[in-house]
Each structure stands twice: as structure tokens, then as C-alpha cells.
Amino acid sequence: MFSFLIHSIEFVVLLWMSFNVLYVSFFSICGLFYKRQKPPTGKRIILNRFVLIVPSYKNDQVILDSVPKNIDQNYPSDKFKLFVIADSLKPETIEKLLSWPISVLPVSFDESTKAKALNKALSVLPDNTFDYAVVLDIDNVMGENFLHHLNVRLQSSEEVIQGYRTAKNSDTDFAVLDGISEQINNHIFRKGHAAIKLSSTLAGSAMAVRMDVFKDAMKNIHSAVEDKELEFYFMKNNMKVLYEPHAIVYDEKVQDSKVFLNQRTRWVASHYLNFTAILSEGIKKFLLHRNADFLDKAFQRLILPRVLIIGFSFLLSFLYFIPLFNFGPLFFYLFILCAFSYLLAIPSRFVDKKLIHAILKLPYAFILMILAYFKINNSLKVFSHTHHAIETVTAVKVEQFAKMSEHMQGELLPMLND
Fold first, then answer.
1. Burial of residue 2, with CB atoms counted within 10 A of its CB: 0-12 exposed, 13-18 middle, 19 or more buried
2. How far apart, in Å, do the first and last CA atoms of the chain sit?
3. In terms of DSSP H, where are the helices of 197-256?
């Protein structure tokens, strides 16, 4: 009886881990066959109008550092506008922002979320002024040709496109590990999916959405995981998320274990948001409407975070050496397949001494991911922003904010129409 129970549990775990490993392995191999869509030839390129929305929650110094770098784009200056949503920034920070050719909207919420900031921005942006909204995080720095490459791809009123996010810092082992994780996601969940005509995964920033679509999509989104809710809105409405690897945005990576834990707690919580409803709806839409993209998104809710997949497959591989377990060799092969799939997804330029040091941090990262599951209860209620290397946190006083916000909103529309 005891032996039967052990083997039954072992079989269930084997099925579960097989699903996880085979999913990432399949799309990792598919990523090798990805071919970027070629720009149109023999056709006049339309210059789309972009509004670059940057929700800035506190972190005064970070926004002051990123804005001047994002103004310089290899794209006509009259075809894009940088729009900072200044949530709880200091008055002197806002004054400094206003000295640059950008638009600034001071806001303040009882509980700040990125979704609230985006909805506020969309409520004041006039119709028919911009073709696409580009969402950037506060620390993001666009490559100088970012908008050019987005525009070349967006020539037929496409709804959604995800750019290529990559690390702009590698100063700590955790930053390197976070950067490698981003590359694996780019390869498996963007290149791999695009290679077989499935929708790519949103990254939360460096994405462009057609304005009318974005306004409709955000109307009922208010949580701190707007990127996940946007994905399911697009999938339910048969809108495909395209991928443009030449549209590069540099993203600051976490620098220590504390920030890593806070960030992953939010990710884990978002992963299981409306889990049952989304899974059942995904299966239903596939059976009734052949919506493979939505079914794929539902399946993504079933798989573990990448660190946990490699961690659990490594631990279970030791069953190979214990005669009591029947499937020990299969667990060992799953670990080898998982490790091989991750290596396929890492660009060769990332293979150096820093990578070796970062891999040594994987056991610690695995433990932190486990801890994240015990901290998810309140992580979706407020904007849990990532702490950066340079940060100043001082809120605008209520009376200063009210006066400034009233003045700024009066000046905003003419500035946006310039």
C-alpha cells in the first residue's frame, strides 16, 4: 500500500513537471526558427504619431535621469510626445521636468497603481492626436531607433506590438540573473511564440498599443497587474501581440535579494489572478472559436515561474539515484532538457564570467521564489514599485499638488497638440 501511494504521487509529479519542462522546451526550440518580419518595400512609410506614457510613482531622481535620454530619438520630433504622469513627485522635480520639451500631469491617488496612472493619462489625451500609445517604466531608456523600428512594423493599423527589453545594468549578480531571465522570456515567450504565429507575451513596458484599442482595454482595468489583464483582453478579442526585436528598450534590473523578492511576489500574485476563470474560458474559446492564443495564455497560468521549473527539476533529478522511485531516470532527463532549453534561450553575448557567478545565485533565487508564494495576499492592492539604485521619495503636499494639478491640466491639452 505504501509503495503504491509513493508511486502514485511520483507519477502525478512527473506529469506536472513534464508539462512545465516540455512547454518551455518546445517554445525554446521554436525560438531558434524565429524570423523577423521584413519591412515593407516599394511602399511609402507612414509616420505614425506616438505618445510615450511614463507613469512615475515617486523615484524623483530616476525620472530626472531617464527623461533627457528618452527625448533624443531618431524619429521626427513632431511625431512623438513624452508624457510623464507625475504621481507624488516633488514640486521641484516637476518644475525640472517642465524645462524639457515634454508634457507632465501631476496626480495623486489614495492607493497608487500603474493602471490608475495610465487611465488618468488616457482620460486627458485628446482623440485623434496620437495613433499609438507607448508605455514605458520610469527607469526605461529607449534605444535611439526604438520608435523608428516600431513605426516600420506598424504600417497596417496593427493593434499591439511588444518591443525588446534588455538589461541596462549588470553591476550585481542579481542584476545579471534578472537580465538573463529577461532574455529567456524574450526567446521563449516572444520569439518562440511568434515563430509559430502565436501571440507574444507583454512585458509591461516597451509596448505600443493603438490608441482606440488602448482606451477601450483600460476602461475596466484598475489592478496593479495591468499587463496581465491587458493580455487577456487582447486574447479574448482576437488581437495578436506582435514582437519587434529591433525596437530596443534598456530596463534597470533588480540589484539585491530584497528587491528581487518584492518584485517576484507581485509576479507570482499576477500569475494566479483569476486562475480558474481564465483557464476555463481559454478552453471554451478554443473549442468554440479556435482561439489558440487565448488557450496558450490559459496554459501559461499552469506553468511555474522559470526559476521554480529549473529548481524543482534539479531537486527531483536526484531521484535517479534512489532505487525506491520508478521514474527517477525520467526526472533526471527532464532536468537535462530544461537546462538545455534555457541555455538555448540565452544569447551568446551573455555567456561570460558574470553568467557563471549569477548561476551560483540560482539556489538563493529559488528559495526567494518559494518565499514569494507566502507574501502574495496584499501584493495586488497597491503599486509595489521597484526600488532603483538612485531614489528619492517625498510626496507633494496636498495643497501644492491641488494648485499645480489644476494649473497643469489647463496647460496640458495645448502642449499635447503642439
1. exposed
2. 77
3. 211-218, 226-236
Read off the C-alpha cell for 88.
507624488
Q: What is the DSSP letter of 349?
A: G
Q: Positive or negative, the Cα torsion across 309, 310, 314, 319?
A: positive
Q: Which residue has the cell 525520467?
A: 330
pTM: 0.85
Whether the per-residue pLDDT at 381 is higher than 70: the answer is no
Rounded average pLDDT over 312-337: 89
The reply to whether 407 falls in a domain is: yes
Place of cell 474559446: 285
Give φ, ψ of 26 to 5 degrees.
-60, -50
201 close to 189: Cβ distance less than 8 angstroms? yes
Place of cell 496636498: 398
pLDDT in tens, 332-347: 999 999 999 999 999 9
**Mean pLDDT, residues 226-248:** 90
Tell me: the pLDDT tens digits for 30-80? 999 999 887 777 678 899 999 999 999 888 999 999 999 999 999 999 999
Q: Which DSSP category does 241 fall into?
A: E
Contact 260/178 with Cβ under 8 angstroms? yes
In a domain, 158, yes or no: yes
For residue 270, tell me if it sits in a domain: no
Domain limits for position 169: 50-255+396-417
Q: How far apart are CA 336 and CA 174, in angstroms?
A: 24
Number of domains in the chain: 1
For the chain, what's the residue count?
418
In a domain, 184, yes or no: yes
CATH number where 94 lies:
3.90.550.10
**Residue 133, by phi and psi: left (phi above 0), alpha (psi -120 to 50) or beta?**
beta
